[in-house]
Structures are given as C-alpha cells and as structure tokens.
Amino acid sequence: MADTEIVFHAKGLGYTYLDRYPALDDVSFQIRRGERIALLGANGSGKSTLLKILDGLVFPTSGELSAYGQPLTEESLADPAVNARFRSRVGIVFQNSDVQVFSATVREEIAFGCLQLGLSAAETAARTADVLDMLEIEDLTDRTPFQLSGGQKKKVALASVLVMNPEVILFDEPTAALDPRTQHWLIDLIAQLGEAGKTVVLATHDLHTLADLTDRAIIFGEDHRVLADTQTRAILADRSQLIAANLIHDHEV
Amino acid sequence: MTARVLKPAPAWLVSSEQPIGTGRVGRRKRAAFLEKTPGDGAEVVRRAMYAESADPRGDRPGVLFRIDPRIKLVALVVLLLGVALVHTPVTLAVVYLGLVLLAWAGGVSVGAFVTRVWLFVPLFTAVALAPATLSVITPGEVLVPLWTWHGAQEGITSQGLTSAGLVILRVACSVSLVLLVTISTSWNRLLAALGALGVPRIFVMVIAMAYRYLFVLLGSVLDMVLARKARTVQPVAHTAGDRRFVGAAVGTLLGRAGHLSEEVHQAMTARGYAGQHHTLTGFRASGMDLLALAASLMVAVVIVGGDHLLR
C-alpha cells in the first residue's frame, strides 16, 4: 500500500463555521488509492465537514489539502478542466438524499453528472440504463423524487454517483434512516465497490459493519481532532478509545 | 472509564401524579384559522403536486395527452392571443363551449375541468368586477336600479354587465386553455418543452427545482403545525402567541430553505455542474402533432375573424 498513489494528503486541516464554531482542528492524514477508510466520530465531530472538504465543496479555514498531488483549493477548481477532472474522479453520496435527488425524474437525475461533464447524450443514456439495471431500479426511471421512499432515494442518489464511475467514493452516514433490508443491500454494494478497487471513505458512527467494509479507521474526538488513525480491527478492539470518542457507552457506573 | 452520572430527575417527572390537564371538562370548539389553515393548505398543495406528477408519461387515452408538449405550448400561446383579441361575449361563450367539448373529446374529465375553472378564478374576477357594473363606473341603461341620485336612477347597467361578462368569459377561456395544457401534460414534460422551445434552461431549471423542493418545504410546514398541535391543549384564538409562532415558523422555513438550497448546490457542484444545465430529454413531433398545431392556428383565425363579423 505504501507504493500506491496518494489520493488525498491533508496537513493541519481546520474548519470553523461562522468564524466561531469549530468543526475540524489540526487534522492530518493521507489516503492512498484503493484504501477503504472509515471516518468515525460522534455527531458534530466534523466527519461530514471533512467529507465536503475532501470533495472540494467547502474549503478549510486553515491547513492544506491536496488531491492527486495537486492543491485542492477554490482557485484550482475554478479552472474548468481541473474541476471536470476532479469531479469525474471523486464522487460523494450525501447523508440527506433529498438534497442529492433534485432533478424532475430519476432518469434525469442519474444522467445529470455525465451530461455536465460532457459525455454524449447517447453514451449517457446507455450508462444510465446500465446503472438502473445494476441497482434494480428500472421501475423508478420516470418517477419524480417526491414519490420515492427513503430507501429508493438513497439508491437513486447512489446511482447518480456510480454512473460517473468515480475512482473515489465518499459516503456520509450511508445507512442512516434506512430499513434493515436496504441497509444490508447498501453494505453489500459498498463492499463490492471496495473489492473492485475503488477508494472508499465512509463517515459513520455505526460500528457494526465496519470491519467488513473498511481496513483503516480515523477516529475524531468531540474536540474535532484526530484521536487515532489505525487499522479498523485495532480500533474496534480498543474499548477505551471508542468510549473517549463517544462511539460506545460504558454502562458501568 | 466509567459513565458520567446523570443528575437526578425532578420529583414531578418520576412520580405517578396525574398528567396536566386531565379532569378538565370543556366544550369542543372549532379549530382556529391558525390551527387549520397552514396545515390544510400545505396538505392540499402536496396532494395536488403528487397527483399531477403521478402519471409522468401521460399514457392515458385521449388525444390531448398524446400531443407533443411543445405543440401544446405553442397552440396555447396562439389561442390565448386569439381570445385576447375577441370583443364580444357571444364569441367568447362559443369558444368556451368549444373548449369544454375539446376537453371531453381529448380525454379530460369534464366535471373536474369545469369545476376547477369556475370555482376559483372567474369567481374572484366577478368579485373584483362587480363595482364596474354600476352606473357610476360604467354609465348606460340601468337594468337593475339600486339607488337614486339627484332624481336619476343609478344601479347596474347593461353596458356594465356586458363589459364584466366580457372580462369574466375571457378569463374563463384563458384559464380553460391553460388548464387543458396542464391537465394533459405532466409537469416534467411541460418544463422540458419550455426548454426545448428556447426558454433559458437556467430559468426552467430554477422552476423545476422550486417545484421539487416546495414539496419538501411543505412537509416541514405540516410537521411544524402538527408538532404545535401535539402540544396545544385547547384551540387557540388570534393571540400574540399565535403571531409569534407564525413569525418563528416563517423564519425557520426561510432558514431551512436557505440551508437546503446551499446543500443542493453542493450536490450539483459535486457532479460537475458549473453553471450550464444539460438535459437528456428529447422530443419528436409526429404528423398528428403538426396537424394539431395547424388546427389551433386555424381556430384562432376563425375566432378573431368571426368576432370581427359579429361586431
């Protein structure tokens, strides 16, 4: 793994909302191609903010971040070619599917990304059909978003990212608010994507399936700093670490 | 590491005393405006939006549902112009009857069609036009005397009635035309047709997304109303507290809408959006569509020409 390409390199990242509310503090790490990483932490620890920073949607208030060896800044993404290349390589699945399913129909939603990046209508239509088939949601093709259940919206959101065939997929609390069957389906899919060589970064506070889905975990404390960055199994075995991060609760009084 | 010890709960929380408000006897009162209207209004709009989008492909029997949406929009503009150029109530009445027949022949439910037209817009138009029928606004032959002024009879004049009738019928015809298009075309295809006809895509996209997220925000309105209702012991009247609730709810919704729009923009940016909106939808007009367009042009000419002859 040491020889594989470094996809993200973060040095001393910090982020503060409204110049007042810290979300991240002095966060440093590297993510290599093909890694499957969990960002663990309680609510409000900064996981979602970090994912948005990794996807170039918000930018750190301090520190540096580079993607594929190039600085990931607002200025660098202002270049249309750089932006298109980055967007085609990194995809994000938001926690709230409502914000991600914004088109008039499911078909248009899935086709959106490819069309924005310049893929032809014919090829986009073909890829859209492939992804609809793969996720078994062909019956939703012409439906409008507000007719869909939470699980269906999640599948459409996922389809809209997969159709672009990104190398890196960022997931923000992917199993939140899903019924058990849909959760199980999503976990299987994420595992499949990881095995296919995609770089997967998963922000979650759900520990149950982490060992199967990820090799490495970065734990964030409630002080918005990195508490630990090591193998997933080692972290899951470190009870005191998990309690310190408010990921489990110690019932001993 | 041991768990943090919780503070003890207050005595009233863990005692088995009777809940607040039990044992009261009161009369059932009608729900106040604030309690019913926002929630009911939001629910009506949500149901209407859901129903309109329930059949996106428009695969219903009836020729109106199968015509290319672009043709329908162009025909709509042509016929609206025709109606606007008519100056006699008789012509407009004939046009209206023709539209009802077209609705029936085109597969649209006539009952719903007529109700939706006459229940709202013409009613409000009639209310606004009522003063214009009076002799003080539109002088002429007094048909319905209402009062006398300096010995002269004043009231509703025939000229006033004719003018009001003209406006009401024109509104009814215009609304009927728009309704025929919107009933027979799903919202998505309508927006796509607007884009295909050259309406700036950004404009169409903003409308589409506003429509899409109106549903989400309406859900928030309903949730807020229900949450308040769950904690309201008795029907409320128009008090300062109600007005504070409305103000707070409006502010919350504005904040939520702002946050939602920011997140949606991030979701779009994440998938390559950089200001230009590209879509997949395409249309192909058939012979029937072109025939419909030619027919609408002819009808518009006949309407205006016939009206000219009647004057």
Give the end-to-end Cα distance of chain B, rounded to a whole number of Å. Answer: 95 Å
Which word captures the global form of chain B?
flat
Radius of gyration of chain A, taken over Cα atoms and rounded to an integer in Å: 18 Å
Q: What is the C-alpha radius of gyration of chain B, as a whole number of Å?
A: 28 Å
CATH superfamily of chain A: P-loop containing nucleotide triphosphate hydrolases
Q: What is the typical, i.e. mean, pLDDT of chain B?
A: 79
**Main beta sheet of chain B, described?**
2 strands, antiparallel
Strand content of chain B: under 5%
Structure, explained:
- The complex is a heterodimer of chains A (253) and B (311).
- Chain A is built from 11 helices and 10 strands.
- With 253 residues, chain A is α/β, with parallel strands linked by helices.
- Chain A has a single domain, classed as Rossmann fold (3-Layer(aba) Sandwich), CATH 3.40.50.
- Chain A has a 6-stranded mixed beta sheet with strand order 6-7-8-3-9-10, with helices on both faces.
- In chain A, helix 5 crosses helix 6 and helix 5 runs parallel beside helix 7.
- The mean pLDDT of chain A is 89.
- Chain B is built from 12 helices and 2 strands; from the N terminus they run αααααααββααααα.
- In chain B, strand 1 and strand 2 form a beta hairpin.
- About 2% of the residues of chain B have low confidence.
- Classes of the chains: A alpha/beta (253), B mainly alpha (311).
- The interface between A and B is large, with 49 and 38 residues.
Notable traits:
heterodimer, A: 253 residues, alpha/beta, Rossmann fold, six-stranded mixed sheet, four-stranded antiparallel sheet, 11 helices, 25% strand, globular, B: 311 residues, mainly alpha, 12 helices
Topology:
The complex is a heterodimer of chains A (253) and B (311).
Chain A lengths: L5 E12 L3 E12 L3 E5 L6 H8 L7 E6 L2 E2 L2 H4 L2 H10 E4 L3 H4 L5 H11 L4 H14 L15 H13 L5 E5 L7 H16 L3 E6 L5 H4 L2 E5 L5 E6 H6 L1 H6 L9
Parallel strand pairs in A: 3-8, 3-9, 6-7, 7-8
Antiparallel strand pairs in A: 1-2, 1-4, 4-5, 9-10
Helix pairs in contact in A: 5-6, 5-7
Chain B lengths: L10 H4 L18 H21 L9 H4 L2 H16 L4 H17 L4 H10 L1 H9 L12 E8 L2 E6 H27 L2 H10 L4 H30 L9 H31 L16 H24 L1
Helix pairs in contact in B: 2-10, 4-8, 4-12, 5-8, 6-8, 7-8, 9-10, 10-11
